[in-house]
Amino acid sequence: MEHSAPATHSVSVPAAPPARLRPKPRDVLRLLKPITWFPPMWAFMCGAVSSGAGLDGRWWFVAGGVMLAGPLVCGTSQAVNDWFDRHVDAINEPDRPIPSGRIPGRWGLYIAIIATLISAAVGWLLGPIVFIAALVGLAFAWAYSAPPFRFKANGWLGPLVCGLTYEGLSWFTGAAVMLGAMPSVEVVVILFMYSLGAHGIMVLNDFKAVEGDRQTGLTSLPVVMGVEVAARTACITMAVAQIVVIALLALWGFTLSALIVTGVLAAQIAAMPRLIRDPAKYAPWYNGVGVTLYVLGMLAAALGLGGYI
pLDDT, tens digit, for every residue of 47-87? Predict the structure, then answer.
């Protein structure tokens, strides 16, 4: 009995989607992380207020300085960080633009370089002091994430660099833009203390990446110390810096500013036990509550230094 060969059917396999050649604008924006622009923009505003100078036709410089502190220098730092952290992000946050492939190839690096050049150009237009401050900020943005320095690999040095640039350098730039000269010694001392206190804020930011940091050898304080000790250290750092600020403001005669900073510090201290009880769970909450109080104290200090209160 003869059997016919079984019929064959061709199976249509859909073609793989073509590789993306360039990123979409929305993915570039996500890479630059607009949510991170607020701290340096706020610090820039504090610097402008602390100078005590009125706008007097300088609003173009103020607008340019806000753009420089936030979208440009801070945005650049985010692009640089995500490019050099793409392997860590593949573990911690694989949906980010670079590890997910939405920023393809070496576009993450290209965006960081282009943003660096634009930031330097804007700094140049705002005057020599601001230009130098912008170059310092950009240098730290690269050194924080990129070899051979990669400051972020050190749990003490990385947060210090972030605090000095995000808060201190932005504050300095705001005052310099308004004055067209170096800020006063009092302003520099206060911005430096708030920069040191911001070390604690940056340590709290490290709690979200503990597992990836541990696997890739980054010695963040939550990895080295454990989350509870690191949380206590962050709280102490923030509190001690503000205590020094309060003492200095009172010594210099800025009594109302000193009282306001005392009040916001007391509120922070009241919130700290909840953070310390479960740092991994409550670090994002404290970043919303405690850090908001911290930056309100910055503004109060700036208003006093500028002669507004």
Answer: 999 999 877 777 888 899 999 999 999 999 999 999 999 99
Kindly report the number of other CB atoms within 10 A of residue 14's CB atom: 5
Instruction: Please report, to the nearest 10 degrees, the dihedral formed by the alpha carbons of residues 152, 206, 45, 296 taken in order.
Output: -150
Q: How confident is the model at residue 4 (pLDDT cuts 50, 70, 90)?
A: very low
- Residue 292 burial (C-beta neighbours within 10 Å; 0-12, 13-18, 19+): middle
Q: How many residues does the chain have?
A: 309
Query: What is the chain's mean pLDDT, rounded?
Result: 90
Taking Cα atoms as reference points, which of 232, 92, 217, 107 lies closest to residue 152? 217
At residue 1, does pLDDT exceed 60? Answer: no
- The residue assigned the tokens 């605090």 is 163
